[in-house]
From TrEMBL:
It holds the Pfam family HD_4. Gene3D superfamilies: Hypothetical protein af1432 (1.10.3210.10). PANTHER family: GUANOSINE-3',5'-BIS(DIPHOSPHATE) 3'-PYROPHOSPHOHYDROLASE MESH1. GO terms for molecular function: guanosine-3',5'-bis(diphosphate) 3'-diphosphatase activity. Residues 34-127 form the HD domain. The lineage of its organism: Bacteria, Pseudomonadati, Pseudomonadota, Alphaproteobacteria, Hyphomicrobiales. This is HD domain-containing protein.
């Protein structure tokens, strides 16, 4: 592709994702537009040197899973590679949430190299959100469990991209420090010693 064609592909992906996710917001306290997450995923991929198709797939990575967009529709608009990558990183929403999470861990080592890069960028963005804009209705334990689950997914895809892995590791370490600081600020309640 030419530079102009690359730019056109990514621009079309941004517009398509923004329209398809227009009524969606992040679960965090700030209720940020969902497209912010997609832009962060694409930015992480771009910073790691991804090509235009991978960046476009980063913008589109949740369209099949969350908007009812079909693989065929994506293939017609963005090409087979982009559509295949989006399908590869999409969960089957007909399954219960715990099963989808289990399958992400199980399927992670079988992802293509490009899909692994999207997965790293997605988990990095999601863990960052858990730290900086956590969902109001999530308990402290659920936040911690999410970070540990994200780690379990990415541990099975290491070797995909050093820059993306380093970005995830920085955010995971930030999460550890965040939770450790909360532990210090709010130690568990002391129980009285039993009477002798």
């Amino acid at each position: 592709m030419t530079q102009s064609a690359d730019l056109a592909l990514v621009t079309r992906a941004v517009h398509f994702a923004a329209v398809r996710h227009k009524d969606q917001h992040r679960k965090g306290e700030d209720f940020a537009p969902y497209v912010n997450h997609l832009a962060e995923v694409a930015e992480l991929l771009a910073d790691a040197g991804a090509d235009s198709e991978l960046i476009a797939a980063g913008y589109l990575h949740d369209t099949i899973e969350d908007t009812g967009t079909t693989h065929e529709e994506l293939a017609a608009l963005f090409g087979t590679r982009v559509a295949d990558l989006v399908r590869e990183v999409s969960d089957d929403k007909s399954l219960p949430k715990d099963e989808r999470k289990r399958l992400q861990i199980e399927h992670a080592p079988h992802l293509s190299h490009a899909a692994r890069r999207i997965k790293f960028a997605d988990k990095t963005s999601n863990v960052r959100s858990v730290i900086h804009a956590p969902p109001k209705d999530w308990s402290e334990q659920r936040l911690r469990d999410y970070v540990e689950w994200a780690r379990a997914v990415v541990e099975r895809i290491r070797g995909a991209d050093p820059k993306l892995e380093a970005a995830f590791d920085r955010v995971a370490q930030e999460a550890d420090a965040h939770f450790a600081a909360r532990d210090i600020a709010s130690p568990p309640p002391q129980t009285d010693a039993p009477a002798a």
